[in-house]
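As a warm-up, study this chain.
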Amino acid sequence: MKPSLLIAGAGFLGSKIARLAEQNLLVRTVTKSGDNGSEACDLSDDNEVARLASLFPAPDYIIHCASSGRGGPDAYRGVFVGGSRSLLKHFPQSKLLLTSSTSVYHQTDGSEVDESSPTEPIRETSQLLLEAEQIVLQSGGTVARLAGLYGPNRSVVLRKFLDQSALIEESGQRILNQIHVSDAASACLHLATKNHPGIYNVSDNTPITQLECYQGLAKHFDRPIPPTGEKNTSRKRAWTHKKVLNSKLRATGWAPSFPCFFDALSSLS
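Now compare it with the structure written out below.
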């Protein structure tokens, strides 16, 4: 019988993980609304997670990749902190992987960061991610800190470039850390099923500056480079400037199909 996987949150990333996993695993998906064949469950409600656990045998693996629904601290506290705690409580035999974010790294000096680097984010949402991480790590689980996700018809920098709303912040030296959704899915599945507990940065091999990114897009599409402007300090993931290293993840045997953002350009539209 195939090993089983429960994907808690079948959105942009979770649905990609499901498609990738279904050949080798028995896959079940959970969404808040229960649409598209998923079980309905609000992860922030412990009673609903308890009900979910009564519906089928405990899975071998759980990947918690639900989103906050663009909510603020209360949503993060419910979905990530409460959700992680409830999944561990009601599925105690399952191996849990939590998708977190590289936004927990607060560095603004352009330095390199790995899994041992300090995490002292200013934003409460990132602080709550760290709290959820600790809950999972203390249970022997895995935390995947994701860089900025992009994929077909879903790339913020590409959309802004094409609709001409892009601005190069000051000198354009802020570093962009990104990961293609298919590579993020393969990394999460690899970590979850190959017994790799601990924290792993999930990013591509080639962080690039904002200027390099827009110069590359301008060359690819034969369009002008965007104008310069002031830096955007109101970004959802907070304004940071650091180079996220994925060496620990690659040392487990994983490698991205798209080592650099430019490698994926032809597949994005």
